Amino acid sequence: SMSFDMSLFTTNWLLCVFINSLQWDCVLRILDILLFERDAQVLLRAATAILKLMQPQIMKSKNQEDLFTLLKSKSTLTLEKDKQISPGLLAETIYLHLGPLSNLAQRRAKHSVLLSGKHRFSSRAESPYFPNNTYCGI
Predict the structure, then answer these.
(1) pTM of the prediction?
(2) What is residue 116's three-state secondary structure?
(3) Choosing a second label site near 114 at 20 to 30 A (CA), which of 22, 35, 71, 123?
(4) What local confidence, expressed as pLDDT, does residue 106 receive?
(5) Residue 101, exposed/middle/buried by CB under 10 A (0-12, 13-18, 19+)?
Protein backbone atom coordinates (compact mmCIF):
# COMPACT_ATOMS: atom_id res chain seq x y z
CA SER A 1 0.00 0.00 0.00
CA MET A 2 2.82 2.37 -0.91
CA SER A 3 2.40 5.05 -3.54
CA PHE A 4 5.30 6.03 -5.76
CA ASP A 5 5.73 8.51 -8.61
CA MET A 6 6.85 6.28 -11.46
CA SER A 7 7.98 9.24 -13.55
CA LEU A 8 11.07 9.46 -11.32
CA PHE A 9 12.58 6.47 -13.13
CA THR A 10 10.44 5.82 -16.21
CA THR A 11 11.23 9.21 -17.72
CA ASN A 12 14.88 8.24 -17.94
CA TRP A 13 13.96 4.78 -19.26
CA LEU A 14 11.79 6.16 -22.06
CA LEU A 15 13.82 9.23 -23.05
CA CYS A 16 17.06 7.25 -23.22
CA VAL A 17 15.35 4.18 -24.71
CA PHE A 18 16.57 2.08 -21.74
CA ILE A 19 20.26 2.61 -22.65
CA ASN A 20 21.16 3.53 -19.07
CA SER A 21 19.09 0.77 -17.49
CA LEU A 22 19.47 -2.46 -19.50
CA GLN A 23 22.20 -4.47 -21.16
CA TRP A 24 22.92 -3.65 -24.79
CA ASP A 25 21.38 -6.85 -26.09
CA CYS A 26 18.08 -5.96 -24.37
CA VAL A 27 18.23 -2.37 -25.65
CA LEU A 28 18.82 -3.64 -29.17
CA ARG A 29 15.91 -6.10 -28.85
CA ILE A 30 13.62 -3.24 -27.77
CA LEU A 31 14.80 -1.10 -30.69
CA ASP A 32 14.29 -4.06 -33.03
CA ILE A 33 10.72 -4.53 -31.80
CA LEU A 34 10.12 -0.76 -31.98
CA LEU A 35 11.26 -0.60 -35.60
CA PHE A 36 9.33 -3.76 -36.49
CA GLU A 37 6.09 -2.60 -34.90
CA ARG A 38 6.48 1.08 -35.84
CA ASP A 39 4.62 2.02 -32.69
CA ALA A 40 5.95 3.97 -29.69
CA GLN A 41 3.62 1.87 -27.53
CA VAL A 42 6.42 -0.71 -27.59
CA LEU A 43 8.44 1.50 -25.24
CA LEU A 44 5.60 1.60 -22.73
CA ARG A 45 5.13 -2.15 -23.05
CA ALA A 46 8.85 -2.66 -22.47
CA ALA A 47 8.72 -0.51 -19.33
CA THR A 48 5.70 -2.48 -18.14
CA ALA A 49 7.49 -5.76 -18.93
CA ILE A 50 10.50 -4.66 -16.85
CA LEU A 51 8.22 -3.83 -13.93
CA LYS A 52 6.51 -7.20 -14.29
CA LEU A 53 9.84 -9.05 -14.39
CA MET A 54 11.05 -7.15 -11.34
CA GLN A 55 7.77 -7.54 -9.44
CA PRO A 56 9.17 -9.88 -6.75
CA GLN A 57 11.88 -7.35 -5.92
CA ILE A 58 9.46 -4.44 -6.07
CA MET A 59 7.11 -6.17 -3.64
CA LYS A 60 9.99 -6.65 -1.17
CA SER A 61 10.67 -2.91 -1.03
CA LYS A 62 9.85 -1.57 2.40
CA ASN A 63 9.72 2.11 1.54
CA GLN A 64 9.97 4.56 -1.33
CA GLU A 65 13.71 4.94 -0.92
CA ASP A 66 14.26 1.19 -1.44
CA LEU A 67 12.04 1.24 -4.49
CA PHE A 68 13.76 4.29 -5.93
CA THR A 69 17.18 2.70 -5.37
CA LEU A 70 16.03 -0.53 -7.04
CA LEU A 71 14.52 1.05 -10.14
CA LYS A 72 16.86 3.98 -10.69
CA SER A 73 20.11 2.17 -10.24
CA LYS A 74 23.33 3.48 -11.76
CA SER A 75 24.02 0.06 -13.27
CA THR A 76 21.79 -2.23 -15.32
CA LEU A 77 18.56 -3.49 -13.83
CA THR A 78 18.70 -7.07 -12.62
CA LEU A 79 16.28 -9.73 -11.50
CA GLU A 80 16.62 -11.51 -8.18
CA LYS A 81 20.03 -12.95 -7.27
CA ASP A 82 21.79 -10.57 -9.69
CA LYS A 83 20.40 -12.44 -12.70
CA GLN A 84 20.40 -10.20 -15.78
CA ILE A 85 17.24 -9.59 -17.79
CA SER A 86 17.71 -11.54 -21.03
CA PRO A 87 16.46 -10.23 -24.39
CA GLY A 88 14.40 -13.37 -24.92
CA LEU A 89 12.68 -13.08 -21.56
CA LEU A 90 12.00 -9.40 -22.14
CA ALA A 91 10.52 -9.99 -25.62
CA GLU A 92 8.45 -12.91 -24.31
CA THR A 93 7.05 -10.71 -21.55
CA ILE A 94 6.32 -7.84 -23.96
CA TYR A 95 4.41 -10.09 -26.37
CA LEU A 96 2.94 -12.89 -24.28
CA HIS A 97 2.44 -11.71 -20.72
CA LEU A 98 1.04 -8.22 -21.17
CA GLY A 99 -2.08 -8.94 -23.16
CA PRO A 100 -2.67 -8.79 -26.89
CA LEU A 101 -1.19 -6.18 -29.19
CA SER A 102 -3.64 -4.37 -31.40
CA ASN A 103 -3.91 -5.81 -34.93
CA LEU A 104 -1.37 -8.56 -34.20
CA ALA A 105 -2.77 -10.91 -36.86
CA GLN A 106 -2.63 -8.17 -39.50
CA ARG A 107 0.92 -7.24 -38.52
CA ARG A 108 2.06 -10.85 -38.74
CA ALA A 109 0.46 -11.29 -42.16
CA LYS A 110 2.06 -8.08 -43.41
CA HIS A 111 5.55 -9.20 -42.38
CA SER A 112 5.25 -12.91 -43.15
CA VAL A 113 6.67 -12.43 -46.66
CA LEU A 114 9.72 -10.64 -45.27
CA LEU A 115 10.34 -13.40 -42.75
CA SER A 116 9.89 -16.32 -45.11
CA GLY A 117 12.96 -18.39 -45.93
CA LYS A 118 13.33 -17.40 -49.58
CA HIS A 119 13.31 -13.66 -48.82
CA ARG A 120 15.03 -13.65 -45.48
CA PHE A 121 18.64 -13.40 -46.66
CA SER A 122 18.13 -11.86 -50.06
CA SER A 123 19.23 -8.23 -50.24
CA ARG A 124 17.12 -7.67 -53.35
CA ALA A 125 13.92 -9.39 -52.23
CA GLU A 126 10.64 -7.78 -53.18
CA SER A 127 9.52 -5.76 -50.22
CA PRO A 128 6.22 -4.00 -49.49
CA TYR A 129 8.29 -1.02 -48.30
CA PHE A 130 10.43 -0.83 -51.47
CA PRO A 131 8.35 -1.74 -54.53
CA ASN A 132 10.21 -2.69 -57.72
CA ASN A 133 13.41 -3.27 -55.73
CA THR A 134 14.04 0.44 -55.23
CA TYR A 135 16.21 0.68 -52.15
CA CYS A 136 17.07 4.26 -51.18
CA GLY A 137 17.00 5.34 -54.79
CA ILE A 138 19.36 2.59 -55.98
Answers:
(1) 0.65
(2) coil
(3) 22
(4) 73
(5) middle
